[in-house]
Amino acid sequence: MFFHINLDKNIILEARHFGRNMREVLHEKLKNEVEGSCTGRHGFIVLVTAINNISEGMITDDGTARAKFHVEYGCVAFRPFKGEVLDAVVTQVTKFGFFAEAGPLSIFVSNQLIADDMQFESVGENAYVSADQQVRIVKEAEVRVRVVGMRIDASEIFCIATVKEDYLGLIGEPAAY
């Protein structure tokens, strides 16, 4: 799920950036440092939407003439929850299940959490194939999954998901190149 939240961060700026464009340099440095990062508490920071406040700079005491600014900003964060339904793209298929990605989120679907009528086939390209051969989950296929478990670290979120329920599973074939 996506949230708009307010966070803060200390940004250190070198003396050569002091001047007329300092605010733009701080904004660019903030974006480079936080967009795409992950915190266990807030999830993945997708986009910095606004800078709410920039404190006056404090000269660092390491003798380098750098200044530290406390920046308060608004951002869009993506954090999954147990029970949430996500659309993802399959990245790898193995006999133990398949891996998929929903944006920056890594997802694993175990073969116990795949419909009972689907079997693993390793002839040619690895795939999970339905008994009637109509459904094939292969690399680059689009799937709809439900999150059943999560592991949250300081800098990463990893999910376990299922496709063993109604309206879950394959939603799009891989694009032909």
TrEMBL record:
GO terms for molecular function: single-stranded DNA binding; single-stranded RNA binding; translation initiation factor binding. Its main location: nucleus. GO terms for biological process: positive regulation of nuclear-transcribed mRNA poly(A) tail shortening; positive regulation of translational initiation; transcription initiation at RNA polymerase II promoter. It is found in: Nucleus. Keywords: DNA-directed RNA polymerase, Nucleus, Transcription. It comes from the Eukaryota. CDD domains: RNAP_II_Rpb7_N, S1_RNAPII_Rpb7. Residues 80-148 form the S1 motif domain. This is DNA-directed RNA polymerase II subunit RPB7. It comes from Mantoniella antarctica. The lineage of its organism: Eukaryota, Viridiplantae, Chlorophyta, Mamiellophyceae, Mamiellales.
